[in-house]
Amino acid sequence: MLAQEVIRLKRDGGALSEAQVQAFVAGLVDGAWSEGQVAAMAMAMFLNGLCGDETVALTQAMTRSGQVLDWSRDGFGGPLLDKHSTGGVGDKVSLMLAPMLAACGAVVPMISGRGLGHTGGTLDKFDSIPGYQTAPTLPTLRRALHAAGCAVIGQTADLAPADRRLYAIRDVTATVESIPLITASILSKKLAAGLQGLVMDVKCGNGAFADTPEMALALARSIVRVAHGAGLKTRALVTDMNQVLGHAAGNALEVREAVEFLRGEHQAPRLKQVTRLLCAEALQIGGLAADEAAALANVDAALDSGAALERFARMVAALGGPADFCERPLQHLPQAPVQRPAPAPRAGWVQSKATREIGLAVVELGGGRRRASDAVDPRVGFSGVVSIGQHLAAGEPLATVHAASEAAAAAAVAALQRGIVLGDAPPAPTPLLIARITEQELA
């Protein structure tokens, strides 16, 4: 099958057959399709879109392009569940959600990614824990799942390799923002992980990839529809990302906030709400709760009893981290040498945040990447970030800046003062949950 003829068909707006999609994916893996041909196909898909059948075929072909994990012989007593977020600023939900689900009876082999652009990456957060292996061998992964019920790791070279090559080319050809291609990229990795259920957190707002409700809803519906077409039970929540989620943004700082959350010490209301809702959806998908009320009761019991914290501690130890990490996180997490408050320039109510710019300020501090090859400084970022609706006196901190140098800290203070808007009256409250998408609602 000639690559140029397949490209021509999609260029002219035609629908690809399953065989043509499979030929494209095979060419991605074995190199039969050149960089130029892959780029041309990516642009044709971007401009002309993919129908539902094409997206399902692409998802399944990329799933089968490498190893598909099989847990049938492991004797796990619970369903294999996972959650995925489309990314935001301060989004550390996965750090708490994986052990919370494990404490409720699920098994969670969570394949996560690294940050790029203004959004943080879950793997970068775990890299701040000394010794933690984000790329373990398969036997180590299996031992961690048996020991803790959860393991948050990165995509291995054997999982969905077609997606890795296609995404790298999309990243440099301005073809990332395609709902069908995003859908296939996310789901191919999740299907390759051998899951039985998935809950999606589609972020919406000025700190998200999907900055409008229309785009977020379109993506959520696409993911749910294609996942079911590929045989994976999936639901999606569309949630607000118009402010930092929780009170920390930056890798080690977010890990610290997650541990404090699991210990019941500091649980930012919006962070707790979205984590509980996502957990409840996953438990219902996996048959571990009959309805939302029962699921939320189980989630709260896992938190209040300390069972979720124990699962997190077991996971860290099983993947090479300190055995006493949850007891002494400050002794193990790296800390920035410069820590200074960002004072509010005036008194007032927090009206809004330029959330994407706050995320980029973390990148400028060294806590994120401009390019995939960049190193990340796990120490830097913001803690104690104020919430929308909070009242401040002049000079009270908008956040505490954690930086590698005084000059970097000064620039971050200025960025926060620009990005957090204060006003004379409290703003109208906005809901965290924007929409809930299930297969039944799409029928």
Tell me about this structure.
The chain has 18 helices and 12 strands. The protein has about 450 residues and is α/β, with parallel strands linked by helices. It has 3 domains: about 5-50, Transferase, Pyrimidine Nucleoside Phosphorylase, Chain C (Transferase, Pyrimidine Nucleoside Phosphorylase, Chain A, domain 3, Up-down Bundle); about 80-330 and about 435-440, Nucleoside phosphorylase/phosphoribosyltransferase catalytic domain (Pyrimidine Nucleoside Phosphorylase, Chain A, domain 2), CATH 3.40.1030; about 335-425, Aldehyde Oxidoreductase, domain 3, CATH 3.90.1170. A 4-stranded mixed β-sheet has the order 1-4-5-12, with helices on both faces. The radius of gyration is 22 Å and the shape is globular. It starts with a helix and ends with a helix.
Task: Summarize the helices and strands and which ones pair or pack.
Layout: H1 3-11, H2 18-30, H3 35-48, H4 52-63, E1 81-85, H5 93-103, E2 108-112, H6 122-126, H7 138-148, E3 150-154, H8 161-172, H9 179-192, E4 197-204, H10 213-229, E5 233-240, H11 251-262, H12 269-285, H13 292-304, H14 307-318, H15 329-332, E6 338-343, E7 348-353, H16 355-367, E8 381-383, E9 391-392, E10 397-403, H17 406-419, E11 420-423, E12 433-437, H18 439-442
Parallel strand pairs: 1-4, 2-3, 4-5
Antiparallel strand pairs: 5-12, 6-10, 7-9, 7-11, 8-10
Helix pairs in contact: 1-3, 2-4, 2-8, 4-9, 4-10, 5-12, 5-14, 7-14, 9-10, 12-13, 16-17
